[in-house]
Amino acid sequence: MSDSPRPIRVVIVDDHPMVAEGIEAILETYDDLEVVGTLGDGRAAVDQVKRLAPDVILLDLNMPKVGGLPATEMILERRPETRILILSMHDSPEYISTALSHGAMGYVLKDVPTEEIKVAIDTVMRGERYLCPGSEASLTPRGTGAREALTSREQTILLQVAQGRSNKEVALDLDISVRTVETHRKNIKRKLGIATTAGLTRYALEHGVLQGTGTGQ
User: Fold this and answer.
1) Which residues on neighbouring strands pair with residue 58, listed in sequence order?
2) In this structure, what is the dihedral angle of CA atoms 212, 213, 215, 217, given to the nearest 10 degrees?
3) Interval 99-139: pLDDT, tens
4) How far is it, in rounded angstroms, from Cα 186 to Cα 166?
5) Backbone angles phi, psi at 59, to 5 degrees
6) What is the torsional sign of CA 153, 48, 53, 106?
């Protein structure tokens, strides 16, 4: 008799304790899942992701301190192998596509049947994207003329690049690796269709990125 594989490690992040407890109670009925943490906001998830080492995070979209979208980016910076499933009450294509652009592997509606959450976890653990039923058709590719939007993290890094800060300085300020900053810069250039740092600075000036930064300096 072969040894059973270890359970999938799951963290639940939701600022409503009853919601988190309800999901935890559901997931604990499955032998191949282990809930290793329930947290109340995105900041806690970012701070504890390395310690908890989850395979999957069920992450509420709207939370205090740090919401689901910026938390997704920061979590993946610290532990890229974690799969993130966004939990939300909103099923509009805009919400779903934005979550995916921030790095989430799936999008789950809070009112889905209980077994659907298990399906979502199993799907992303296979390396596949999970979307709430009926949403695939609404996420058709946009026209080639549409520019892909920058995420909030990318906007922050664009601002710092435009201020003349080096990759090392940005990395120290955001508490991420230089390599992660380089990856963000590459993605920013790709999305904006700009090849040089000078071009990024010019874009920031022309689009008001450098105005009203509120640094207090």
Assistant:
1) 12, 85
2) -50
3) 888 889 999 888 888 788 999 999 999 999 998 775 555 45
4) 14
5) -120, 120
6) negative
